[in-house]
Design a protein that fits this description.
Layout lengths: L2 E10 L2 E11 L4 E5 L6 H9 L6 E6 L2 E2 L5 H4 L1 E4 L11 H11 L4 H14 L15 H13 L5 E5 L7 H18 L2 E6 L2 H7 L2 E6 L2 E6 L1 H6 L4 H6 L4 E8 L2 E4 L2 E3 L11 E7 L4 E4 L8 E13 L4 E7 L2 H4 L13 E6 L1 H6 L7 E6 L3 E2 L7 E5 L2 H8 L2 H9 L4 E5 L18 E5 L4 H10 L4 E5 L8 E6 L5 H12 L5 E8 L8 H19 L4 E6 L2 H11 L3 E7 L2 H13 L5 E6 L5
Parallel strand pairs: 3-8, 3-9, 6-7, 7-8, 21-22, 21-23, 23-24, 25-26, 25-28, 26-27, 28-29
Antiparallel strand pairs: 1-2, 1-4, 4-5, 9-10, 11-12, 11-14, 12-13, 14-20, 15-19, 16-17, 16-19, 17-18, 24-29
Helix pairs in contact: 3-4, 3-5, 4-5, 5-6, 14-18, 15-16, 17-18
Bound molecules: adenosine-5'-diphosphate and magnesium ion.
Length: 586
């Protein structure tokens, strides 16, 4: 491996801006770090370069641990957005600067300079001053200068930032050519997905300090694992659907579209419909693909090659399924793009009615689809649905919050819920919260979030499961949640107080297994801690240590939960709690 990052964390004022990032970049690979502004890309790049230290984790270049080496000692070449050339030096002097510092002979320097100027297509420009060059040319010089001392790794931070579209494209091509010719391992940071697609062997998408997913561009586009990647890499319609044994259902409409993997349990899922995978036809019978709903053209924009439009769903039931951040006000709209060919064979005008079909549906593996606030009366439900932490979480997940009044929650005297509960059930923290949680789990909820009225956003999320049957689901929920919360994840393993010396290696192995499974299966990086004592006491102690924490607790047995955790929930809660329930399969 050329670059290896192992759980790299960088905090500013206690908050992680680079959060537990692990990554391997292969020899000669062109890796693009893509993410919105503020997601931690530059900080991570600076950590690789040695321009900033890290608070946790290790960085290795070509198998050598460089975590504590200075930038000079790491042998990397750097290019930034602002050209950062020495103004008073000529192009030639700029390029030779690093070689001069390293006391190379003049003849060798000249030779290298010539070679580099050819490489970036600036032959003969040696004697120009930076001010006599265009922005694009200055960036070429910056690239040549970064490569002068033959670094083994090239790092570029938004190198096209200040250039206009045509120049960007030219410079893009140059950088790609140089990278190929030298076969130099390269990491480029950008917020522009088009740039990422054009350059990358592999793309890593960052948000809120976390590296969410990494993969080949077409794989990430076709089969994203997360909402964020689905919507950041290209446009995507996210719809809530029900997954059943036979396939995917939108509202009352079963859709037979090809779905990659199905698991048996019927539950709510998040489906990704790319705008170009949607077909429009005059009637349902004219569709060549699977019908999902009728709609009406809302708006059309012509963008040259493609026609972009918004289609309003006519089916109110289905419209309600459209998952969206801005709950009630969200218009039930699908984004659709059509090629010239499609436009010619079925011209459309705003206001026209259409049948909507879909060629391909991708179901996200996330276990967290939406939130259902549950309370015994309307007023309490209204209040809880406006909980700032919940509102923020739902907005980040681009999902909805549904309110549900269940009078039975007031006393839980054996009454059943009116219908099975979809998505994550949410209740307020109160003295009898444990009984409420249990009632909700008995009535179909698979996850329950318990929210105290006043909490600060968590900076640390503790993860624990009471037995192994809940492990997988707990990790999946933790991974999904942590993509939307800028907090550090810590798996807490707990062994009985009297655990003998001989049992300790077993405890440590369990931690390491948990960590690798989280990483490999769910893309979640987490820290691990081994504690001794009784689980409920130990977790309680940790949660009361500081306010900015949250607990994700996996269980597979309600009785065990009742016996162990009633006390934890009965004390005035300062932290939020997510209970993940997966009964053991018989
Ligand atoms: P990106 O390059 O993805 O836009 P950055 O890595 O520059 O993101 O920044 C990530 C976050 O870290 C931002 O919220 C930014 O304000 C914060 N940050 C970066 N550098 C510092 C610093 N030196 N001190 C405090 N906060 C910082
Ligand atoms: Mg940046």
């Amino acid at each position: 491996m050329s670059i290896t990052l192992d759980q790299v964390t960088k905090r500013y004022q206690g908050a992680p801006v680079v959060n537990d990032v692990s990554l391997e970049v292969a020899e000669g690979e062109f890796f693009v770090l893509l993410g919105p502004s503020g997601s931690g890309k530059s900080t991570l790049l600076r950590a690789i370069a040695g321009l900033t230290g890290v608070d946790h984790g290790r960085i290795a270049l070509h198998g050598k641990d460089v975590t504590h080496l200075s930038a000079r000692q790491r042998g990397v070449g750097l290019v930034f957005q602002n050209y950062a050339l020495f103004r008073h030096m000529t192009v030639g002097e700029n390029i030779e600067f690093a070689l001069r510092v390293r006391r190379q002979k003049a003849a060798e320097r000249r030779e290298r300079r010539k070679e580099l100027l050819r490489l970036v297509a600036l032959e003969g420009m040696d004697d120009r001053l930076p001010t006599q060059l265009s922005g694009g040319q200055q960036q070429r010089v910056a690239v040549a200068r970064a490569l002068a001392h033959k670094p083994q790794v090239l790092l570029l931070d938004e190198p096209f930032g200040a250039l206009d579209a045509k120049i960007r494209e030219e410079l893009r091509r140059t950088i790609r050519q140089v990278q190929r010719e030298l076969n130099i391992t390269t990491v480029l940071v950008t917020h522009d997905q088009e740039e990422a697609f054009a350059l990358a062997d592999r793309i890593g998408v960052m948000n809120l300090g976390r590296l969410l997913e990494a993969g080949k561009p077409h794989e990430l586009y076709a089969a994203p694992a997360t909402r964020f990647v689905a919507t950041f890499l290209g446009a995507a319609n996210l719809l809530l659907a029900r997954q059943t044994a036979d396939g995917i259902r939108f509202g009352a409409t079963p859709v037979l579209a090809r779905v990659e993997k199905l698991d048996g349990r019927e539950h709510e899922v998040v489906a990704v419909l790319r705008p170009e995978e949607i077909e429009l036809a005059p009637t349902r019978d004219n569709l060549r693909t699977n019908f999902i709903a009728n709609g009406e053209i809302d708006e059309i924009a012509f963008t040259g090659a493609l026609e972009r439009m918004r289609v309003r769903l006519a089916d109110q039931n289905l419209a309600a399924q459209l998952s969206s951040a801005a709950e009630a006000s969200a218009a039930p709209i699908l984004e659709v793009t059509r090629t010239q060919h499609e436009q010619r064979s079925f011209p459309l005008q705003p206001g026209q009615s259409v049948a909507i079909g879909v060629r391909r549906i991708h179901v996200l593996p996330t276990p967290l689809s939406s939130y259902t606030v549950c309370a015994s009366d309307q007023q309490a439900a209204d209040r809880l649905a406006q909980h700032p932490f919940l509102v923020e979480l739902a907005a980040r997940m681009k999902t909805r919050i549904v309110k549900r009044v269940e009078p039975a929650l007031a006393n839980m005297n054996g009454a059943r819920a009116q219908s099975p509960i979809s998505g994550v059930a949410v209740v307020g923290a109160r003295a009898d919260a444990a009984a409420q949680v249990e009632w909700l789990l008995e009535n179909g909820a698979a996850e329950v979030l318990v929210l105290p009225a006043h909490i600060s956003p968590p900076q640390r999320v503790l993860i624990h499961w009471l037995d192994d049957d809940a492990r997988r689901a707990t990790l999946a929920v933790a991974a999904s949640l942590l993509r939307h919360v800028p907090a550090e994840a810590v798996y807490v393993g707990i062994m009985p107080e009297g655990a003998s010396e001989s049992q300790r290696p077993f405890g440590v192995r369990t931690l390491l297994d948990a960590r690798s499974e989280a990483q490999a299966v769910h893309g979640l990086e987490m820290r691990t801690e081994l504690r001794f004592g009784i689980a409920a006491d130990e977790l309680h102690r940790q949660l009361t240590e500081s306010a900015e924490q949250m607990l994700i607790l996996g269980i597979s047995n309600l009785e065990q939960f009742r016996n162990t955790f009633t006390n934890l929930l009965a004390t005035p809660a300062t932290s939020s709690l997510m209970v993940v329930y997966r009964p053991a399969e018989k």
